[in-house]
Amino acid sequence: MTDTDGGLHAQAKADVFIQMFEAHYARVVRYAEGQLSGLAAAEDVASDVFRVAWLKLDPREPFGLPWLIRTAMHKSRDVQRSRYRGKAAVEALGERATSTAGDHMSSLDRLSLLEALSKLSRRDRQILHLTYWVDLSAGEVAEVLRIRPGAVWTRLHRAR
Questions:
Q1: Distance between CA atoms of 118 and 23, rounded to whole angstroms?
Q2: Which of the pair, 7 or 29, is modelled with greater confidence?
Q3: The whole model's pTM is what?
């Protein structure tokens, strides 16, 4: 195949993708929004769906709406699972924190702690958990997470 043929293939792929995107993007977003109850998350899912479509696209056999919706269904489920896991992790950390503090924490303090934990990234919650509840050193946390000890200290400082 010559460079010219490759250029034609790339242009054909781009043309087919643009047509597919213009014809179906709004419906993919609408589907995802119904699954996730939020426009921002739905647009993220749609972007991911079309990213996958671009990577897998053969201009001779373009994807139709059913393929795009099925892919959005899978991506939406991934988001829902991630949300569930994140919520479960925050609740588990909060329960552990409040049980170790015993009677020393008021209900308001417990709520504040749970709210603060929920705002952290998964990695920051993980570092707090490993440091304070599992009682690992920064070096041990770094080894578990395969990051540098300096990164552990930075994330720990930011999370606090």
A1: 38
A2: 29
A3: 0.50
